[in-house]
Amino acid sequence: MDTSQTIVRQPADLPGAWPLLGHIVPILRRPLEFLPAASGHGDVVKVRFGRLPVYVVTHPAAVRDVLVPGDLDYRRGRIFDRLEPALGKGIATVSGSEHRRLRRLLQPVFTRERLSGYAAVMRTAAEECTASWRDGQTLAVDEVMNDLALTALTRSLFNVTAHPATAEAVKHGMRLLTHGLLLRTVLPPAWERLPTPGNLRFRRATAAMHAAVDDVIAAYRAAGGDRGDVLSALLGARDDDGHGLSDQEVHAQVTTLALTGVEAPGAVLGWVLYEIGRDPAVAARVEAEIDAVLGDRPPGFDDLPALDYLGRVVEETLRLRTPLVFMRRTLTDVRVGGSVIPAGAEVIYSPYLLHHDARWFPDPSRFDPDRWLPENRERIPKGAYIPFAAGAYQCIGKLFATMELTVVTAAICARWRLRPVPGTRVREVATALVRPDRLPMTAHRRERAAGPR
């Protein structure tokens, strides 16, 4: 697609809108079908959340028209407005110069030295999780991986075994936030103020989560010192003028990391194990690589480049089961894919839509890690694969997340084979993420082949 063409089109209106409600009902009913279907109506398509027009960008080149200008022409959109009351003004919700300032301050959290330490924490969490498994035991892998991700996250944040009440408060608050985010995005803001049972549960859960995080921050401030964890790095961060983060800003970064570090990796870890477990050929290649690279030692950060096939398994899982939508708001009239979108408009680009488009990913529902071999990767257009967004607002924890997925999977598959329970149908459920409705799998202990030491 040539985005430099002089013809300017009006974005097509997506059919199927309901009177007054617009496309709210179709989106909520079948989001995983609704978004990919939009690509058949143009590179930029206009939908309506009630009376609010929202522009869905469906082509990789048009997505780059949105992402490359970054925060010059765009700020965070409606979905991030809905996150701010729960997360505060953290790196995931602020825009422009404030986002750039926080990004600079947070860079020390993700240095190579600290990532290596986090990898060890994640591996230990995986080893402790699997220590209680029994050969032939059936596990609810979706729940097990969610708990494992919570343990890895809280220990990476706090470098101590978090008090059970603190960990549970974080888990419960983040689950309600992610599970209700799509609904909160498409409905008008006034809905959140209604005393519905769901809104009341959400307020109680987020209040408990914020109180727990405040208690931990206060304890760290009082104790001082660097424990090698995320919270120590946040408390020690300084800008060029020597100014650090306030307690409120530290709190916002902790809750933001909790959002991205519990529900998302928990869901994706479950999917990774499911895809490995249901294809013997994939499982054999994963196990052979782990044995050859690791021998009898546990995985660490420095092993990531050598775990090449497992890395492709993770990439392919992130393609299939990816965030549903990201949003931006235009600061001025912008040209996207040959269309003009007015200032102040809400713009959606959907990783799920892009990752399931057969033009960029032939047979898109098929799990194929070899899509990511170098000779195949180069045929994928820029902007077609964006599990962590891209541009100025790309997820700062991208390497943290992919490291966790790879290290934890390697630690599990070194000792165990997980197989789906025969006859069980696993459905995709769309919230802020694409998670399994359930994921029962049977654990089988395996003997590792001898590999290099």
Straight-line N-to-C gap: 51 Å
The percent range for strand residues is 5-15%
The oligomeric state of the chains shown is single chain
Count every helix, treating DSSP H or I runs of 4 or more residues as helices. 18
Summarize the structure.
The protein is α+β, with helices and mostly antiparallel strands and 453 residues long. The protein is built from 18 helices and 13 strands.
Keywords:
six-stranded mixed sheet; alpha+beta; 18 helices; 13 strands; 453 residues; Cytochrome p450
How are the SSEs placed, and which strands pair?
Layout: E1 12-13, H1 24-29, H2 31-38, E2 44-49, E3 52-57, H3 60-67, E4 74-76, H4 78-87, H5 96-106, H6 112-131, E5 138-140, H7 141-158, H8 164-179, H9 181-186, H10 197-223, H11 230-236, H12 247-261, H13 263-277, H14 280-294, H15 308-320, E6 326-330, E7 334-336, E8 339-341, E9 346-349, H16 351-355, H17 374-377, H18 398-413, E10 416-420, E11 428-430, E12 434-436, E13 440-445
Parallel strand pairs: 1-2, 3-9
Antiparallel strand pairs: 2-3, 4-6, 5-13, 6-9, 7-8, 10-13, 11-12
